[in-house]
Design goal:
The protein is α/β, with parallel strands linked by helices. Helix content is about 40%, strand content about 20%. The chain has nine helices and 13 strands. It has helices at about 5-15, 20-25, 30-45, 60-85, 105-115, 130-135, 200-215, 225-235, 280-295, and strands at about 50, 55, 90-95, 120-125, 140-145, 155-165, 165-170, 180, 190-195, 220-225, 240-245, 255-260, 265-275. The chain has a five-stranded mixed sheet. A four-stranded mixed sheet has the order 8-12-7-11, covered by helices on one side. The chain has a two-stranded antiparallel sheet with strand order 1-2. α5 links the parallel β3 (about 90-95) and β4 (about 120-125). It starts with a helix and ends in a 14-residue tail after the last helix.
C-alpha cells in the first residue's frame, strides 16, 4: 500500500465516481480502477459496490476512508514540519481583522501554529478602511476584510472567501424579530445604528442609498467605529442596524433577518500586499484554503460559498 493508492481511493470515495477521480489526478480512469483493485486485493476486502451507473462505499470502504484521510493528513504534516525545520523557517506574521471572524480565526490560527511552531502570529483589530491602509503600507501581512473599495489599492491582492448578504440586525425581543424576511418600509421609523461614515464611507453610502431608493429618511441615532459596537448596541435594544453579516451561531439576544428588497451583496475576502516579501504570507494563505475546505461550518457568515 502506498500514498498514491490512498489518494486515489479517497478521491473515488468522496466523489463516488471513478471518472471524476481520474480527472482530478490527470490520469486515465483505468489507472484509478487498477489501483483500487490492487488496494482491495492487498487488504482482502471489497471497498466499493460498483455497477454501470453508481458507485457506493461498503462498510469497510467507509472505515478506510476515515482512516486514510488521517494517514494522508499526518503524512503531509510530517513533510511540512520537516521542511520547516530544514529551511529554518521562522518569523512573524501580522494579521488584521475586523472583529467578525471570532468563530473561525482562533481555530485557523490554532491549526497553523500546530504545524509551524516557530512562527509568531500577531493579531490587530482595525476598522475596514484602516485595515486596507495598513495592508498598503505593509504594517500588516494579511487582512480579513470586506471588498468595498479594495480596488482602490492596486498593490493589494485578495481572494474571495464568500458572499455576504446585508441583513437587518435587531434584538430578539423586537416585535419584528420573528419574521423570516422584512421590508425596508417596515423599519422606516426604527432607530438605526450605523458604522461611522468617516470610518466606512462606502459602507455608509451603501446603506443610505437603500433608504433613499425607497424615499425613506433613516432615523440614525448613533454612528459607531466598529461592527462589534454596533452589535452590542443592537443587542442592548437601543436600535436596529443593517449590516453585511449574518452570524452562523448568533447569540440568543440577536436576530439577523433577510431584507425583501434586493440589495447588492459584498464579498468577504482575505487580502495581502503583493509587494510584501514576507514568505509566511504564502504559507498562511495556503493553510487558510485548506482550513475553509474542511471547516466550512466554522465561518461566521451564513453565505453562499464562492465558486471559481
Amino acid at each position: 500500500m502506498d500514498l498514491k493508492q490512498l489518494r486515489y481511493f479517497v478521491s473515488v470515495a468522496e466523489r463516488l465516481s471513478f471518472t471524476e477521480a481520474a480527472a482530478e489526478h490527470f490520469v486515465a480512469q483505468s489507472a484509478i480502477s487498477k489501483q483500487i483493485s490492487n488496494l482491495e486485493e492487498l487488504i482482502g476486502v471489497q471497498l466499493f459496490i460498483r455497477n454501470r451507473r453508481t458507485v457506493q462505499l461498503t462498510k469497510a470502504g467507509a472505515q478506510l476512508l476515515k482512516d486514510a484521510k488521517g494517514v494522508i493528513e499526518h503524512y503531509e504534516e510530517a513533510i511540512s514540519n520537516a521542511r520547516l525545520r530544514g529551511s529554518d523557517l521562522s518569523g512573524s506574521i501580522k494579521i488584521g481583522y475586523l472583529g467578525l471572524e471570532k468563530l473561525f480565526l482562533p481555530r485557523l490560527i490554532n491549526q497553523f501554529t500546530k504545524k509551524y511552531r516557530d512562527v509568531n502570529i500577531e493579531l490587530i483589530q482595525y476598522t475596514r478602511d484602516t485595515l486596507n491602509a495598513s495592508l498598503k503600507l505593509g504594517d500588516i501581512d494579511i487582512g480579513f476584510t470586506l471588498s468595498l473599495s479594495i480596488d482602490k489599492f492596486p498593490e493589494i491582492t485578495s481572494r474571495k472567501i464568500s458572499n455576504i448578504p446585508f441583513t437587518v440586525v435587531m434584538n430578539s425581543e423586537h416585535p419584528l424579530a420573528n419574521h423570516r424576511k422584512i421590508s425596508i418600509t417596515s423599519i422606516a421609523t426604527e432607530p438605526v445604528i450605523v458604522i461611522n461614515p468617516e470610518v466606512s464611507p462606502d459602507g455608509f453610502k451603501h446603506i443610505s442609498e437603500l433608504f433613499i431608493k425607497h424615499d425613506i429618511s433613516p432615523n440614525i441615532i448613533q454612528e459607531c467605529s466598529h461592527f462589534e459596537t454596533v452589535l452590542l448596541m443592537v443587542e442592548a435594544g437601543i436600535g436596529i442596524s443593517i449590516l453585511p453579516v449574518a452570524m452562523v451561531n448568533p447569540p440568543p439576544t440577536l436576530r439577523f433577518i433577510e431584507l425583501e428588497e434586493n440589495i447588492e451583496e459584498i464579498d468577504f475576502i482575505i487580502a495581502w500586499n503583493k509587494n510584501n516579501l514576507n514568505p509566511l504570507i504564502s504559507l498562511f494563505t495556503k493553510e487558510f484554503e485548506s482550513f475553509i475546505d474542511t471547516h466550512e461550518d466554522g465561518l461566521i457568515f451564513k453565505t453562499k460559498k464562492s465558486t471559481p
